[in-house]
Amino acid sequence: VSGDLKNQAAYWKEHYNTDLGRGTTDEYINNWRKGHER
Fold first, then answer.
1. How far apart are CA 34 and CA 20, in angstroms?
2. Residues 5-12: contacts with CB within 8 Å, 24+ apart?
3. What is the pTM of this model?
4. What domain range is 11 assigned to?
5. Could you write out the DSSP letters of every residue in 1-38?
6. CA pair distance 31, 28, nearest whole angstrom
7. For 1-38, how does the pLDDT look when each residue is reduced to its tens digit (9 = 90+)?
8. Which residues contact 26 (CB under 8 A, 6 or more apart)?
9. How many domains does the chain have?
10. What pLDDT shows up at residue 1?
11. What is the pLDDT of residue 6?
C-alpha cells in the first residue's frame, strides 16, 4: 500500500471493511489523522 492516505483508506475499505460494511473511507482518514496527531 502506498503512503497516500486516500489509497490506504480505499485498501482498508476493500480488504477489511467490504462494500457492505458501515465504515467509510472518509471515516478511516479522520480516524487515522486523530490517531497520528502530534
1. 25
2. 5/29, 5/32, 8/32
3. 0.77
4. 5-35
5. --S-HHHHHHHHIIIII-TTSS--HHHHHHHHHHHT--
6. 5
7. 557 999 999 999 999 998 789 999 999 999 999 999 87
8. 9
9. 1
10. 56
11. 95
